[in-house]
Design goal:
Strand order of the largest sheet: 1-2-7-4-5
Number of strands: 7
Helix content: 10-25%
Number of domains: 2
Order of helices and strands: HEEEEEEEHHH
Length: 167
């Protein structure tokens, strides 16, 4: 379900702090897979009980025809803090306290085709839109962008892709 943030916050004692696409979650390919979504809820009640029913924590969407798989789903409580706890895909009766942050990232879709055959202009656009990080553009697609202005470096991209073809 894709329940609107306003409906969730009206019905439950939570504040939705993030609802966004997850960079580098899609499977790299000539045709990139779809991005996963991150949702984070801050618990506002003194105590809440949550059930998590998800999939693709162990096995992500595979790539097809030379593409790479997507990043798998994951969930945790209080990410990035000393109190961080990873969760499994199926959790019943998880007790959370006021101030806890529940984070849930859905895995992306697998790509199709060799990622090094993706049009470098499309990879550049993906980086500018925040879908693909600079390191992933280079590692997964063989695309080099100028670090200062994120312009496509066609010569360096051709060299990097040529080196890969020889190995």
């Amino acid at each position: 379900m894709n329940t609107p943030v306003e409906a969730v916050e009206t019905e439950f004692p939570v504040r939705v702090e993030r609802y966004e696409l997850v960079p580098d979650s899609a499977g790299p390919g000539t045709f990139r897979g779809g991005l996963g979504v991150r949702r984070q809820w801050r618990i506002l009640a003194e105590e809440s009980v949550v059930n998590l029913r998800s999939d693709r924590f162990k096995f992500s969407s595979p790539g097809v025809g030379g593409a790479k798989p997507a990043r798998p789903s994951r969930a945790s409580v209080n990410p990035g803090t000393p109190a961080e706890r990873p969760l499994t895909s199926k959790v019943a009766g998880l007790r959370l306290r006021k101030g806890d942050l529940l984070s849930w990232e859905l895995g992306g879709g697998g790509g199709w085709g060799d990622p090094f055959k993706r049009d470098p202009e499309l990879v550049s656009r993906d980086v500018l839109r925040g879908y693909v990080s600079l390191p992933a553009a280079r590692r997964d697609y063989g695309v080099v962008l100028d670090l200062d202005d994120l312009r496509l470096d066609r010569e360096a991209t051709a060299r990097l892709r040529g080196e890969r073809a020889r190995t």
